[in-house]
Structures are given as structure tokens and as C-alpha cells.
Amino acid sequence: MNVAGSLYGGVELGGTKCVCILGTGPDDVREQAVVATGRDPVDTLARIETILHRWVGQHGPIDALGIASFGPIDLVRLSPTYGSIRATAKPGWRGTDIASRFAHSCGVPVGCDTDVNAAAIAEGRWGAARELADYAYVTVGTGVGVGLIVDGRPLQGFSHPECGHIRVARMAQDSWPGSCPFHRDCVEGLASGGAIAARAGRAPETLSDDDAVWEYAADALAQLLHTLMLTAAPRRILVGGGVATARPGLLPLIRRRLTRSLGDYLDLDELVGAIDAYVCAPGLGGRAGPLGALALAVDAADR
Ligand code: ZN
């Protein structure tokens, strides 16, 4: 709960940039700043701490801090490496302790989750999934991630799910190897911004809407959504992230392929309503990430 007079800090740690935020929610963002994510985590985190300390000097103390980090990250609370980055394709960051470092440097409770889980939580609190206890947030950006909210909480087992790395059937005659360094042609290896750029030979934003590469991406993403629907039965699926947000034409392609992929197995109209409202854009757009970090802080202060 957000208490009057409270103030929260948030940090969205991304693969290319980190967004620091100060406020209490989408209607009360008092500061926001961006720090490039460098190869040296110690340097990057120190620059973030400098910003947070400056804000505290200007606005007063914060009640808690939320960290929404790229993954994989250890979220098992009793683990000795809780809040640390695990195996990652990002050079230099493996093993970096995030949560306890900020807890020490800021002296407040710290809430930590993946960037995509945090964005999903923000969408549930303030965005396009309000009042839903079961939904999914899919981000298509540098990578492909899924925040799967089940019974009001991000699903968590031995780790947070990494649905962006599930394997999918390839389109007929598609022999492009895929770009995931771990699996080659998983969803992320076929549909992320990096995959689209690698396949097309140029940045996704420079491609026309009718470039064939979007069909490949939509096909892999539709299979991801098919799998999500049949495993977790989310009541809504939001598709956001930098690539999807900048390309509104991608959503209709995904919906069409998803409907075809499911066949008549599910009565979509009866179970989830119209496909256009079921598979939709996030309500917070590009703000879901940093606002997700704030949402984690609000929850950490309540614990
Ligand atoms: Zn993969």
C-alpha cells in the first residue's frame, strides 16, 4: 500500500541502459535519470548510487528501493546468492550482487525481481491488467521475456521462468540458425530485436512493415503465446517491449497466427473474449519497466 508522505526509489537495470526513478507511482514521478549499462558492473552500480544519494539529499529519505533487473537473477529468498545475477550473455555481470549491495548502500528495504516480472506487476497495479490475478506480460526487445503472474504473484519455482527461451517449431523452409547463444533457435533466438537485426542485416526500426522478417518473429511469438495459454491459462496477455511497441503492426500478425495455431481447440470467445482485447499492448507502454521498479519498492516497504 502506498502511504501518504511515502517516497520510493527504483532502478530498472537493463542490458543497455539503467533507468533510475523516484516517486510513488505513474502520476507522481519526481525524478528520472538514465545511466548506460557498462561492461564493469561496479562502475555502473556506483553511478546509480550517486544519483540515488543525490535525490535523497534533494527530496528526503526513501522508504524502500525496488530493483528490476535483467536476468537470470537468483530470486530464491533463502539462497546465499539471493539478488545476484546468474549466467548471462552480458559480459562481466555474472555473479554481480545487486540486492544486498543496494540494501547496504541505501540503508532501506530492497525489493528485487526480474525486469519483466516488475513490468508485469506494474501493469497489474496501474496498467492494462488491473484487477486481474492471472495474466502474462511478454516483452519483445533486446531479448524476449515473460512475466507470468499466477494468483497475483510472479510464478517462481527453482528460478523465475524463462519462457523466452522455449523451443518452437520452425516455419517451413526456414533454415536460418537463430541468434540465441545458448539455444540458437528458441523464441528469443528467432523473435528478439537482436534476432530480427541479425536475420535482416539491419536494425528492426529501419525495416518496412511488410518485410518477411516480421512473419518469422510473429510465428515464434504466436507459438510462445499458444504455450502460455495452454500451460498457465492467463486471462490476458500483454505484448510490450521496445521492438513490439515501436511496431504496432506486429500485434495483428501475432493474433492471426495464434488463432490459427490454436485451431478450434479453445473457444476463445467463450473463455477469454475477443482476441484483440485478449492479446493487447501494455497500458503503461515504455514506462512499465521503471514503474515496475517503483512497484517493487512499494511492496518491499510493506513487508
Ligand atoms: Zn535461448
Question: How would you describe the overall organization of this protein?
Answer:
This protein is α/β, with parallel strands linked by helices. Helix 6 (213-232) crosses helix 8. It has helices spanning 41-59, 99-106, 115-126, 187-191, 193-200, 213-232, 242-246, 250-262, 268-271, 275-278, 288-302, and strands spanning 8-13, 17-25, 28-36, 64-69, 110-114, 135-140, 144-150, 153-154, 237-240, 279-280. The strands form 2 sheets. Strands 3-2-1-4-5 form a 5-stranded mixed β-sheet, sandwiched between helices. A 5-stranded mixed β-sheet has the order 8-7-6-9-10, with helices on both faces. It contains 11 helices and 10 strands. The chain has 2 domains: 8-118 and 286-302, Nucleotidyltransferase, domain 5, CATH 3.30.420; 128-282, ATPase, nucleotide binding domain (Nucleotidyltransferase, domain 5), CATH 3.30.420. The chain binds zinc ion (ZN).
Q: What is the succession of H and E elements?
A: EEEHEHEHEEEHHHEHHHHEH
User: N-to-C terminal Cα separation, in Å?
Assistant: 10 Å
Q: How large, in whole angstroms, is the Cα Rg?
A: 19 Å
CATH level-four homologous superfamily name of the largest domain? ATPase, nucleotide binding domain
Count structural domains.
2
Provide the β-strand percentage band. 15-25%
Could you give a short description of this structure?
The chain is an alpha/beta fold.
Secondary-structure map:
Elements: E1 8-13, E2 17-25, E3 28-36, H1 41-59, E4 64-69, H2 99-106, E5 110-114, H3 115-126, E6 135-140, E7 144-150, E8 153-154, H4 187-191, H5 193-200, H6 213-232, E9 237-240, H7 242-246, H8 250-262, H9 268-271, H10 275-278, E10 279-280, H11 288-302
Parallel strand pairs: 1-4, 4-5, 6-9, 9-10
Antiparallel strand pairs: 1-2, 2-3, 6-7, 7-8
Helix pairs in contact: 3-11, 6-8
The structure holds zinc ion (ZN).
